[in-house]
Amino acid sequence: MTTESRNPLTRFIDRASTADMLRMIQEENYRSVETVQSALPAIEQACELAAASVAAGGRLIYVGAGTSGRLAVCDAAECPPTFGVPPETVCAVMAGGQEAVFHAVEGCEDNEQAGELALLALQPGKTDTVVGISASGNAPFVVGALTAARSCGCHAVALVCNADCSLSRLAEVTVFTPTGAEVIAGSTRMKAGNAQKMVLNMLSTVAMVKTGKVYENLMINLRPTNQKLRGRMIGIVSELTGNDAAVAKRQLELYDWRIPAAVQAWQKGGKK
Q1: pLDDT at residue 107 greater than cutoff 90
Q2: Which of 80, 88, 166, 209 is most solvent-facing, going by the fewest CB within 10 Å?
Q3: How far is 46 from 53, CA to CA, in rounded Å?
Q4: pTM of the predicted model over 0.85
Q5: What's the per-residue H, E or C state across the chain?
Q6: 109 in catalytic set
Q7: Residue from 109, 112, 116, 182 carrying the catalytic annotation
C-alpha cells in the first residue's frame, strides 16, 4: 500500500530545522489537494447519489475507523446546525463506537462482523447512500459495513487512498485520492486525512445545496443555538430583505427564528 511506504522527500525530517520541517509538510499538503482535484469526476457521481438519497428522505451514512471515522463524525455533526437537517440525515458509524472518537480502541477496526452489525443496526434501505472511508481501502470493519450496505440495496461509495482495494471492489462509486507516502510513514492522519476531509465536505455540502438547504451561498436553515449563529441569521435576513439588524431580528422572532419564513413573510408584505 502506497500509504504505508516511506517518503523519500521527508526521510531526514528528524534532522531538519523547524522551518524545513514545515516546508516539507506543506509541500506534501499541496499534493493531497491535487489528488482531490483528480478525483472530481468520481466525487461528482458520489454527490449525485448522496443528494438523491437526501431528496428521497434517505440518509447519507458514513462508516470509518480511526482518523477516517473521526473525520466522518466531525462532518456529520456539523450538518444539523449548518443546514437545519435532523441528525440522522447525515450520520457516522465509527469503529469502536463513541469511545473511539476520543481514544484509540485497539483492534476495533479489524472486526468485519462488527461493521456489518453496526450498519444493520441503522436499518439501511434503498434510499440510503453509505460511504465507506478507509485510507488503506481494506479496513475490515468498513468492509463489513459496505458489504451489508450492498446486501440491503443501498448505494455504496468508497473513499480510499490505495488502488485495487477491498472497498473499491464493493462500491458502486470509488473516490480514489492517491495521496501516497506520508510525511511520517503510515501516519494517514496527514495527507490521506486532508483529502478525506475535503471530499466529505464536498459530499455533504453538495447534497445539502442540491436539496434546497442553501439559498445562493447562504445558510438559510441555520438554527439559533448560540449568540454567534443568531447574529449570523440576523445578517442573512438583513441581506435578503434590505432591512437593518433590528428589523431583521424582530422578523426572525416573529417567525420562530426560521429564516425562510421570515424572509417570505416580508416579501409578501407581512411586515410587522
Answers
A1: no
A2: 88
A3: 11
A4: yes
A5: CHHHCCCHHHCCHHHCCHHHHHHHHHHHHHHHHHHHHHCHHHHHHHHHHHHHHHHCCCCEEEEECHHHHHHHHHHHHHHHHHHCCCCCCEEEEECCCCHHHHCCCCCHHHCHHHHHHHHHCCCCCCCCEEEEEECCCCCHHHHHHHHHHHHCCCEEEEEECCCCCHHHHHCCEEEECCCCCCCCCCCCCCHHHHHHHHHHHHHHHHHHHHCCCCECCECCCCCCCCHHHHHHHHHHHHHHHCCCHHHHHHHHHHCCCCHHHHHHHHHCCCCC
A6: yes
A7: 109
Find out whether 83 and 215 touch, Cβ atoms under 8 Å. Answer: no
All three cell numbers of 145, joined, read 459495513
14-28 per-position pLDDT tens digit: 999 999 999 999 999
What residue segments make up the domains of the chain, in order of their start? 2-210, 227-267
pLDDT, tens only, 225-256: 899 999 999 999 999 999 999 999 999 999 99
Quick check: is 116 catalytic? Answer: no
